[in-house]
Amino acid sequence: MSQTDFVRSLPDAEPDNSKVTIWQILHIDPILLSAVVLTLGFGFIVLYSASDGQTFYLKRQMILAGVGVVVMFGIAQIPLSVIRRWVWLPYLGGLVLLVAVIYLGTEVNGAQRWLNLGPVSFQPSEIVKLSLPLLVAAYLGKRQLPPRLKHVAASIVMILLPVALIVVQPDLGTSLLVAGSGVSVLFVGGLRARYIIGAFVLMLVSAPIVWQWGLHEYQRERIITMFNPEADRLGAGWNIIQSVTAIGSGGMNGKGWLLGTQSHLDFLPEGHTDFIIAVLAEEFGFRGVCLLLALYSLIIGRGCWISFTAKTPFSRLASAALIFTFFIYVFVNMAMVSGMLPVVGVPLPLVSYGGTSLISLFIMVGILMAISTEPGTLKS
Amino acid sequence: MREDSLFRDEQLEVRLIQGRLQFLALVVLACLAVLALRYHYLQIEQFEQFVTLSDENRIHVRAVPPTRGLIFDRNGVLLAENKPSYTLSVVPENVPNMLELVDKLSVIVDLTESDIERFQEQFHPGRRPFEAVPLRYSLTEEEVARFAVQEFDLPGADIQVELIRHYPLGEYFAHVVGYVGRINERDQASIDAEAYAGLHVIGKTGIERQYESELLGEVGYEYVETDARGNVLRVLERHHPLPGKNIYLNIDSELQVAVHDQLRGEQAAAVAIDTESSAVMALVSTPSFDPNLFVSGISTREYSALLQDLAKPLFNRAIQGQYPPGSTVKPMFGLIALEEEIVTPEFTVFDPGYYYLEGQERPYRDWKDGGHGTVNLSKAIEESCNVYYYELANKTGIDSLAGYGSRFGLGHLTGIDIPGEQSGTMPSPEWKREARGVVWYPGDTVNVGIGQGFTQVTPLQMAQTTAVIARRGSVIKPSLVQSVGEQSFEPVIEDVIEIKDENWDLVSDAMRNVIHGTYGTARAIGADLEEYEIAGKTGTAQAISIAEDVDYDDLELEKRLRDHALFIAYAPVEEPKFSVGVIVENGEHGGSMAAPIARIIFDKLLEPTHTDSPLEESRVAN
What we know:
The complex is a heterodimer of chains A (380) and B (622). Chain A is mainly alpha-helical and 380 residues long. Chain A has a domain at 24-44 and 54-232 and 308-332 and 346-372. Chain A has 16 helices and 3 strands. Chain A has a 3-stranded antiparallel beta sheet with strand order 1-2-3, covered by helices on one side. The longest helix of chain A has 33 residues, at 276-308. Chain A starts with a helix and ends in an 8-residue tail after the last helix. Chain B has 622 residues and is of the alpha+beta class. Chain B has 2 domains: 61-249, Penicillin-binding protein 2a (Domain 2); 253-293 and 315-615, Beta-lactamase. Helices cover 39% and strands 19% of the residues of chain B. Chain B is built from 24 helices and 23 strands. The N and C termini of chain B lie far apart (116 Å). Residues 1-8, 545-552 and 610-622 of chain B have low confidence and may be disordered. The chains are: A mainly alpha (380), B alpha+beta (622).
């Protein structure tokens, strides 16, 4: 971050990097920004239809997106060294809130996830979702890579603390996603293959034990439902059957905007939040799904490129973990609504209605932009 | 050194991270491809199946019930109509908690145990999903209003305006028109469920049952779009139902009502037939009941009251009551004996008040103590002499009597167009062997001769055989229905009994004397009759069998043990237009109890001036 850092440029570093563009001054990544804005716009169109032509949800979502954009620009301006140095603070704050939510949280669908702060309610797990990969990246970024066993162990402790707190809410889905975001840092950081294999074996061995003792009844139910939704057509299987029917009946071209019968006749539950991809697929067909996948691919691809060309180990690890977390959300949501994964409470990034998720996505994009426009060249 | 190692490390590390990133990017790419394939599979390959599923989801076929055909009398008086009625019904698929709903509803509307029981019975397996199941019929305006206020709290329950069968003339036509009732499990097994989709009632008795398929009409369908809770959002397509056909009866409702009112209080039946076409002008059975009770389901209490009533109001005496015809068979047997040349008009029998079969000690009594003296056929009919007929029957033999009797209409169904008719009995040696397993005795023939013993007829058969006599031998099936929709029924002559004119003349004259002769057993009804002449025959049938040698006094017998009064007649004598059969149970004597009914019928039918009919009121009322 000093001039001396700049001098020690690598011979193969691109000469362009030394030239300061307007984007670097503004800390904006134009490609990422356009992809995000396009996805968001597509999301607004679908959300309007999913909320039955009522503008209530759409207005709120637009206001939150506006707030999100401002937050994103703000975050992008923060020097990465500050983020790296202070990320433990939101992480710790997140842990505290996760403890608080156990005692003070609002119960929704049998799980305490929400914290009411006057007019605003949000899920503290969102804070951890962002700060955890950053913290692990900051920690490992300072160490030699591939990480040594004790550093791996320390990272796992960082990961397990929030995961355990989320598991007891109970929210198995989110805890797995949070764990994924932390573990992805370890993986990108070069975690040795033997540890990876060892972890897999451990998971396989413990799976039956977890199934028997570690899962709540509703979680087992969801997993069973995924494999055989017909068994309980009007109960747990209803959501899956209806969403898969909505998707399938969209065909190649879809039924047309605002014309989805499944969603507009209330067959589809949660049509504007977690199951919004079913509305999109029903009304815009396979073409619409492909368009969305293309937009996501653009975001993820750009994210990968940012990570690939990032200047510091922290930036590389953090951006990789963030973009991978983003991908996991896309994949898990689209897979669960189409009946490939059990139903977990995961929104579709940038499309699903929901403030907490939207704001945290913009924070993520902001950090990615900060990394993308980080001055200097490859260095440690 | 440290700086160097860091520097080397960095290059290595960058390559390590980039390698891992490339690997992750590949994983991501693969996963996105899997997603694309999954959506491709659902949306392109399985498209047809899911479109069908989605349409099945939202589109329901709903039956539109047809309106049932109306029933009128011959003059267009309405006998069965469809009136709007409010029905509270429930779509079980939309009810989260049925017990709770029924609880809540029972506060708003009056629900009896039997309402609920009946409601539950309708959850049979073959039920169409999302079809409303009726819970309470005929809600009052107040109940409808109370429901409307709380409807938001009662998901699945709804009030429908439905057309309900109504019989404006109630009990007067219960035994003719019959009634419709709820389709029960037994009906369910025998009907085409498709044809009855959306309908809750079916013809149970009378015309309603006999002409069910014509009255029913054809069910219509509509395709409706529903939301996830089954609420109908719009009708996509509608195939209109075809209303049932209207039926016009041969019955003259003025006559029907007048006869019914005359017989009120008695257990009696009367049938009037137009002799030209065998059209049934009146078919009365008293006591009767209000058929409207059955339409929306009769309560157990009301039903058992009807069942346990000793007067048997549900029993249609006119077609189901089987009575010994008594002396009403005499004109017919006289014709047979004349035609078979067993007797001549001049042949006489001396009647001392009793009759002995050759070689038997058992006396066959005449109803008149001391007997009628010397009697020929004319006098035997006019005064209803039994002894002459004992001799006549004995000489004619059972084979001729039964053979002709059957052709005249005894012992088999007349084929009238309502269900439930009984055949009566025209006994013969073959019949006795089969039914009783014993041989025929000469004494049986003697009893048959005066319409006793095993002989049994229905009031309809009495009117029918009298119509055959009035038409001089042609047999036409009696019919209640004049026309169904556009189609009217023409009378068909099924048989002609060949009998010489002079024999017809003699018997017709003797029957005329029953009313208009000096000693006629029904002369009371002919005393003031000048406009036309009636030919008839009285009859008395034993309600219980009494040992022949025991004298008895009518007055000492309980009423229900007294003899039945019978009367048959046709009029006018010269140019017969109508025939009548009347029975008054325990009326004791045909001349005094049954004949006046016939007189009223003929007066109504033959005199064009009808006045003071209660029908005028009912017409206005409806």
